[in-house]
Amino acid sequence: MVRRIDKILEYIAEKTKGFPEEALLQCEGITAAEIAANQNMLRNNVSKELNELLRADRIIKIKGRPVKFLHKQTIEEMFRVHLKEKQIEVNSLGEILQTGEREDPFYSLIGFKGSMRNQVEQGKAAILYPPRGLHTLIVGQTGVGKTMFAKLMYNYGKHMKRFTGQAPFIVFNCADYYNNPQLLLSHIFGHVKGAFTGADQEKQGLVEKADGGILFLDEIHRLPPEGQEMIFYFMDTHTYNKLGESERKRSANVLLVAATTEDPGSSMLKTFIRRIPITINIPPFQERMPSEQLQILKHLLESEALRVNKPIRVEPEVAKALIGSVTYGNIGQLKSNIQLVCAKGFLDSIRENWEDIGLDFKVLPGNIREGLFNIGKSRRESEELGSISSQLYITPEGSHATEEDVLEPPFNLYKLIEDKISLLKDEGLDDSYINKFITTDVNIHIKSFYNRFYNQKGSRERILKIVDKEILEFADQVKSLVEQELNRRYSDRFVYAFSLHLSAFLKRIREKKYGGKPVYDPIDQNDEEYKMALTIKDMIESGFGIDVPEAEITYVAILLKSVEEERKGNVGIIVAAHGNSTASSIVGVVDSLLGSSSICAVDMPLDVSPREILEIIVDKAKSIDNGRGVLMLVDMGSLLNFEAAIMERLGIKVKTIDMVSTPLALEAVRKASLLDMELEDIYRSLKDFRGYNNLEASVGAILDNKVIITVCSSGKGAAIKVKEFVEKIVYDLTQKKIAVIPAKVRELDKVVKEQQAKHSVLAVIGVKRPGDRNVPFIPLEQLIDASGEELLRELLLNHELPVVQENQSVVIKDLCEESLKEFLTYLNPHKILGSLMSFVKELESGLNTDFEYAMKVQIAIHTAHALERMVIHDGLVYRGETEMIDPQILNAVNQACAIFSSGINLSLTGDEKYYICEMLSDVYKTALI
Questions:
Q1: What is residue 868's predicted lDDT score, i.e. its pLDDT?
Q2: Cα–Cα nearest to 767, from 415, 423, 319
Q3: CA separation, residue 572 to residues 618, 622, 633 (Å)
């Protein structure tokens, strides 16, 4: 028979679990009267048992009127804190949480007493096992938190005095060097002077740096066999030798913790695996308990609330959709999705002057919205997460996120430069190449970080959440000075990048973590950027009252050199042709297809003199030039001779191409507007252009005689990756294969000459331009920066190679079928696909518009999920204002839905149709404009 005291304790535990964290922090709890009424007990008996439970340290007492109680262990698990005090009586839960000690670092791990319990016990055993601990392998998919788990093991080791407080935790990613075993082993074990070309001094390895602590080897499956052999010898003997030494006479006390996303048995040497006694498997997000998934969601939302310093309101459907949106990237993907929707909500809150950020289901991106429909796959998950019926309200004040969680630097100049220079220097590359590579690489990262985080309204408010106002204002002063002294115009990208770097520098100085060693310096001290950096150094010293190390000058100089100047507009294009409307007709077609504002027409009636036309073209060129020059596309006659006169009168660059046609104008605008090419590059690529269908030989014969060469700084391995990427793009464009030859940086010109003796080199793609300037060169950053396919398309077209125009409906159908195979449970994707395609086509007809690829796929997949909800009678409830829905869109949806009634005998509810109308609303309005 269950004792009364046990029944009361169980009731308090269950009720405590049911409270949201924010409610608990606002003094929610269970009263004695509630327990008596629910358990059918006398009030005085309940009070007696509650006092006994408090003395036994099983519950927490919240003083007030009425007195409330909470289950202590549940509070510890929910807030991931260890409460040392006994018989806790407080005015609010917040009091005790502030003084609670997280003695065991694993208390901070969500699920440490749930789905991660066994992993935590394994991690602790690995640290404590005498005499040195046990080497450990952590296995799990990308984004599950392998690095975080290794860091918790390290913190636990310090907590248990297994390591000293200053013990190192060294992280190394084996993938960075896996194609260069010599360089990799030098990095891990170090090398002596003269060990290889360029080794002009002895170098400390990671094993030596990690002595007394942990060396974390990430992606260890990328370690080559010889690297594995050297490491397992070190594990056996704790001795090693540096590269260039013949005897293993060095020793170190290092605990190795490795991580991999692969099956260890198939990707590593068996002799290596046998030497790692503990393997810890981190479960993917989808296999975590639903309650833990919700905790992880809340924790990540807390980080965002603290980052933007605003409360976040999350509708129940949004919480479920975010959890269900995790399909491959685990916690990393969930974090990215949360940041995406919070960024949108943050901008809305600024625009509407709201006090908090609201996340509403109807404004979620399509791929995240579809996450709501993935929840139903698991009955258990559906039931537990289905209980999220009330709004989540996340506040910065109630956040358990740490500064480390929130203030991860989006742009770290130190790490970018130091990592790359270490690699390039060991490769033996000369200063001029290192200079070019580093500045290009830093610029790519600045662009990437700016476009992702700040290229939107409210960007200044966002940066002020990360850096002090004083630093941002100082960066503005530096920008003004630099523009004046260097005669350049910088965008806000420079201000944000410089302010983040200055903030990181001041933090290093304040925490006495600035190494003081000068970075390897590829910057010429006579460069204007270096001289400007000296001035900025003086400004920092006087403005912040600190001494700036000489090494910092190099970082600032590289930043000045890396950030591109702000550009305004594209190359201007003038189409000039004889006849009353010839040029206007060509430009009209271009405008309707590409919508460009950088092109204008000059019609030349036969009865108008060339002098009059020249004056018109001069005025047009003056108005359309944005500082990047003007391209003239003309038909014949006197128009060919205007180029010199325009340049002389306006002082701008002008190039002229004759035999103008509509395809030529389209290509010119596409290269100027979409590819942002310079005038010379556009002119060179178009001067022999004669349309898309002028083929003189079969594509197979042409490709057989052509090769593309890829080159990367880290050696052949990275070039092979680029080779595979290029091969795929060429095949997708032409349905033919082309020979792609990978080359090392130092062997590039040799490889080019060898290939030119046998083939025509179509292009070199990578990080270094070939010595032969006649060989076309595509920089690696351009290939990767979202325009790789376009660049190769231009290359192929310019060599008169036909590009395949794929059937749109086939592509869309394939995309839909692949997605639906993965997510539908009850409906057969293959059987409903025809109805879905007809539905999309009927909508286009009813709205008199053509949807883009992505929109067609989104409509089809969303509607498929809606049909599946009809099968299980679990349709969505529309929470918007139905009177705001466009009647024309609703009518088109109603008519199109008749396809499902007649074809597969299913009908959508009105609420489901309203959601489809919402999806179509913005697209339809845009089409009407």
A1: 82
A2: 423
A3: 13, 10, 11
Residue 602 main-chain phi, psi, to 5 deg: -130, 105
Question: Could you give the CA distance from residue 261 to residue 257 in angstroms, rounded to a whole number?
Answer: 14
Q: Which residues pair with 258 in a beta bridge?
A: 137, 217
Residue 572 amino acid letter: G
pLDDT of 631 = 92
Residue with tokens 């002008």: 654
**Looking at residue 1, what is its pLDDT?**
62
- Spatial contact of 84 and 97, defined as CB atoms under 8 Å apart: no
The CA distance from 616 to 378, in Å, is 70
Which pLDDT value is given to residue 712? 66
Strands ordered across the beta sheet of 68-71: 68-71, 59-62, 89-90
pLDDT value at residue 816: 63
Q: How far apart are CA 54 and CA 719, in angstroms?
A: 67
Q: How far apart are CA 396 and CA 388, in angstroms?
A: 21
In the 8-state DSSP scheme, what is residue 191?
E
- In terms of Cα–Cα distance, which of 288, 401, 389, 415 is closest to 338? 401
Main-chain phi, psi angles of 652, to 5 degrees: -120, 160
CB 140 within 8 A of CB 288: no
List of long-range contacts for 739-742, beta carbons under 8 Å, 24+ apart: 739/706, 739/707, 739/708, 740/707, 740/708, 740/709, 740/710, 741/707, 741/708, 741/709, 741/710, 742/709, 742/710, 742/711, 742/712, 742/716
**Spans in the chain with pLDDT lower than 50:** 402-409, 427, 448, 451-458, 692-702, 714-717, 784-787, 800, 802-811, 926-929
Q: Using CA atoms, how far apart are residues 59 and 52, in angstroms rounded to an integer?
A: 10
If residue 728 lies in a helix (H) or strand (E), which one and from where to where? Answer: helix 716-734
**Nearest 10 degrees: CA dihedral of 427, 223, 249, 517?**
40
Of the candidates 482, 556, 500, the residue with the CA atom closest to the CA atom of residue 523: 556
For 558, the token pair is 């590289």
Mention every residue, 6+ apart, whose C-beta is less than 8 A from residue 332: 142, 143
Amino acid at 593: L
Q: What is the pLDDT of residue 434?
A: 66
According to the model, what pLDDT value does residue 819 have?
Answer: 56
Paired with 129 in beta bridges are none
Helix (H, G, I), strand (E, B) or coil at 760: strand
What span, in angstroms and rounded, lies between the C-alpha atoms of 854 and 852? 6
Residues in CB range of 750: below 8 A, 6 or more apart? none
Question: What residue type is assigned to position 553 of the chain?
Answer: I
Strand-pairing partners, residue 136, are 257, 278
DSSP single-letter state for residue 882:
G
Instruction: Please work out, in degrees rounded to the nearest 5, the angle formed at the alpha carbon of residue 894 by the alpha carbons of 888 and 898.
Output: 145
Q: Determine if the peptide bond prior to 66 is cis (ω within 30°).
A: yes
**Token output for 174:** 């084996």
Between CA 885 and CA 893 the distance in angstroms is 12
Of 710, 707, 706, residue with least CA distance to 718: 710
Radius of gyration of the chain (CA): 33
Largest CA distance in the chain: 111
Which token pair is 640? 């060919």
Q: 33, 29, 28: which is closest to 69 by C-alpha? A: 29
Other C-beta atoms closer than 10 Å to the C-beta of 343 total 18
813-825 burial, b if ≥16 CB within 10 A, otherwise e?
bebbbebbeebbe
CB 907 within 8 A of CB 900: yes
Please enumerate in sequence order all residues whose Cβ is within 8 A of that of 491, keeping only pairs 6 or more positions apart, or say none.
563, 566
**760: number of CA atoms within 13 Å, CB side?**
9
Looking at residue 122, what is its pLDDT? 93
Rounded to whole angstroms, how far apart are CA atoms 547 and 912?
Answer: 65
pLDDT of residue 487: 81
Query: Other C-beta atoms within 10 Å of 477: how many?
Result: 12
Q: CA–CA separation, 390 vs 20, rounded Å? A: 10
